[in-house]
Amino acid sequence: MSQRSIRNLFTPKSIAVIGASNSPARAGSVVMKNLMGSGFDGPIMPVNPKATAVMGVLAYPNIESLPIKPDLAIVCTRGERVPTIIEKLAQFGCKTAIVIASGMNQSIDDAPSLMAQMLENAKRYGMRILGPNSLGLMLPNLKLNATLAHTGAITGKIAFVSQSAAVCTTVLDWANNKGIGFSAFISLGDASDIDFDELLDYLGRDSRTNAIMLYVDSISDKLRFLSAARAASRHKPILVIKSGRSQEGSLAAKQHTGGQNGNDAVYEAAFRRAGMLRVTDLVELFAALESLAHLNPLHGERLSILSNGGGPAVLAVDELMIKGGKLAQLSDDSISKLNAVLPSTWSKHNPVDIIGDAAPKRYCDALKIMMDSEDLDAVLILHSPSALGDGNAIADAIIDTVKQHPRRHRVNILTNWSGEDSAYQARKRFSQAGIPTYRTPEGAVRAFMHMVEFRRNQKLLQEVPQSFASTADKETAHRVLQQALADGKHVLETHDARAILKAYGLKTIDTWFAKDADEAIALAEQHGYPVALKIQSPDILHKSDVHGVMLNLNNADEVRQAADAITSRVKSANPSARIEGMIVQRMALTAGAQELRVAMLNDPVFGPAIMLGEGGSEWEPTRDAAVALPPLNLALARYMVIQALKTGKVHDRHLPNGLDLWAICRMLTQISNLIIDCPEIDRLDLNPVLASGENITLLDVNIRLTDSVKDNASRLAILPYPKQLEEYATLRNGLKVMLRPILPEDEPKHLAFDNSLSDEDRYKRYFGVRSAMTHEEMAVLTQIDYAREMAFIASAKDDNGEEITLGAVRASIDPDNTEAEFAMAVRGSHQGIGIGKLLLEKLIRYFKDAGTPVLTGFTMFENRNMANLAKNLGFTVTFDMEERLIHMQLDLNSQTSQQ
């Protein structure tokens, strides 16, 4: 169990309210009223030195006089009193508190802020804090409303976590109107201690929660947030609304929570990489909430539309196509069945227009046929007000039809009853029946596409990447970079960076530096015309912005004239710029090719981010570039290129030698490797990049270096493959094996390894009989998060020279790195030769280096060999006779642990 567990926050059996009050205008009064009114069945203990009772409940004059230790305390006092109160609560034995007070993060005269003092007192005793500036917490299943909200929440399966109290109350009001319930409703406030990452970890494992929604102003710990989000989104959908899409909005968000002011496009990329789905505003949020509350998991994306009018159906189709959706194609069999129950004037295709006089029976007859069909995965039912059809009666009939249909869990149903007064009651009936309903056809389609996008994102993130044999020469790159920094050089242009880029398989065009026109002419004469001439200045990032580029120079006179003209123009446009000389570059063959731009910026929140767009000097990432976080492999790079094409950041102009998808993916992966391996690089701009079929050439390169070099754990948002952990070992029979961390590319070989296990070995490994692994299960095993889990494999060449997996050991770490739990398997044909010992020893060394205190594991009674191996390596082995399990535990801090 983690020492930083927040379980008490979600399972309190007793509550103290510090600052409870009978005065209606005080926070302590509202909190008491909500607690008393919600029906919480544990003791509620108000603390108020001046009151005998609060709302009829006996009050206590101070914390020390409480009859029991509260599981949860709600602190409703002024901010200046909070640090002392938290210390007294912690000393008394309370482990969790919600702090309502705002303005505690302000410092006066360089003294620690009230929030800092509060946290210091809490951490000294292992106490956890939600807030300050928190609206509070609702747990409807416990009948707990510990908030300042104006109303309570209905019990449901959605968890909502927000940094904004105002958004909390708005969402709550809307959800109650729609009859949508929550498993947890949490206001983070300033998130001084408990933050998104821990809540995602808890809610991702919570059986009462089917989906999670977040309102985010800012993220404080990128690595923990993305690790928690990636883990949770594998099991349930996470939707997020992020404020600060504009520069001004981003500044306002920073002022609201005090977080870092990051680039919105990078936030978007981070959410996508974690498998979350972003919505842009509260309207979309409400629509998504409706979908999450009522839709079944999607089995497919094909949408059919049933309507009593053509216009609304066309609007729905337009929105579906714009959003990249799939309109179901009705089979001849389905059309024949619909012909039998619909007027001859019906549309004869999808959308199924059943004419404006449609009554309940016509709607239901058509709906039954459509739900019976294998042609579709979801049906959107539209109704426009009509004097010839009672909307409420039709809604009631549809509700009964859906409830009774045997495929109601396989085919999703969405509804749109257009209008206001005439449609309100019908929409309310659908909500009460658990069928999602929307005010407009477009809104219904957008809500459906949220679920489709989530499904697509999950599938794309689980793709098996093609193997990519990197031949990077890191030593050369580091030598050049370190020499540049030693020389005080912080800007590298194409001619300076060629050796670095070549070391990573990136092609540049021949480029030379000349300090004046005479040297430029000499270089051109030596290497041949035509050439391009460009200004060289550390103060100018985009040379074309100051007209510092001249192309297609064919002789010495043209080079000299160009040098004079460029120098004159640059001095006029930017008098303070330092001009070091000229760059002479062989002219590239651009006919039939397309110009791209690739860059890397250092985001203040998420660190390095890679951007892909079209060539040109103007660049606004939010508008002009697809953005992705490193590390990239070929599958993730492909995902990035697809996003660029889909959103119009890059246009495939279908030139004779234009875009080759895999060539661009290889380039992006190489650039990702360069960024990961070389923390000296602070910014990178490749503009233009010439894409000519398989041939990718970097024409102009600008690399900015930093002296403040950080390690990847603090620099990157997602930890890369730890290549430094690769090693070779020789087994007792002389076989040489490689021990290394697992990679996503290993999925096919790992599946073959898993399938090679005998029934007995599979029984021991999985604690029971199980079928072959699916792709989705294999993706979880091979696409691991190196920040919180590790899997080592042992591999060797078979008789055909093919690499095969001989054994694997893996362990997951709890989010606070207090314990890791391992499991292991070895291929039957290679058991008894020391593979298991090598793997487990490597795992032990890894977690000792990571500072993990305890390594633990379980195996079945039948697997005595595993227990004996663990015992020989220093594990304490105990037997659970009731469960027939062997428990193995190793204290990694012990000096006697065997290596």
From TrEMBL:
GO terms for molecular function: ligase activity. Keywords: ATP-binding, Ligase, Nucleotide-binding. Residues 498-534 form the ATP-grasp domain. It holds the Pfam family ATP-grasp_5. PROSITE patterns: ATP_GRASP, GNAT. It comes from the Bacteria. Residues 737-893 form the N-acetyltransferase domain. This is Bifunctional acetate--CoA ligase family protein/GNAT family N-acetyltransferase.
